[in-house]
Amino acid sequence: MDPVFLFIIFGAGAIGFYMAWSIGSNDVANSMATAVGAKAITFRQAVLITGVLNIVGAVFVGGHVTDTVRKGIVNTTGIDNHVLLLGFVASLLAAAIWVTLSTWKEMPISTTHSIIGALMGFGLIAGGTSTVIWSKVGSVVA
């Protein structure tokens, strides 16, 4: 296998883990802070409940989300496969950096809007305004 391709794949995996960490650092308080702060449940119970429900959500809804991100934001026909690969990896990295910086600066942001915005930017650069599927973007952002 081509070493450049392997580098991109492993790099994309590392960036994916970085994005997951960024999302966790940004969103974890949203799901647990109120219940733990009100002493309705303990921190340990909140982590357990959140972990179980995140896994259930990923199993039952994750496929729809990944299909939308993968095929629903950017019309990939006519874009070279190498450009697509690098564009998606760059979008993931851009969104992860944005989420990390926003979390560090304590700015409330949507991680979903961050990745959708990064993909829109890639689509605009790769193929212009006609490449972005605006109707799907509108339904996701709304």
As a percent range, the share of strand residues is under 5%
Number of strand elements: 0
Q: Which H/E pattern describes the elements?
A: HHHHH
- Mean model confidence by pLDDT: 91
Task: Explain what you see.
- The model has no long low-confidence stretch (mean pLDDT 91).
- The chain has one domain (3-141).
- The protein is built from five helices and no strands.
- By secondary structure, it is mostly helical.
Q: What are the main properties of this structure?
A:
single chain, 142 residues, 5 helices, 0% strand, membrane, transmembrane helix, phosphate transmembrane transporter activity, Phos_transporter
Question: How would you summarize what this structure contains?
Answer:
The chain is 80% helix and 0% strand. With 142 residues, the protein is mainly alpha-helical.
Topology:
Layout: H1 3-37, H2 43-72, H3 81-104, H4 111-127, H5 134-141
Helix pairs in contact: 1-2, 1-3, 3-4
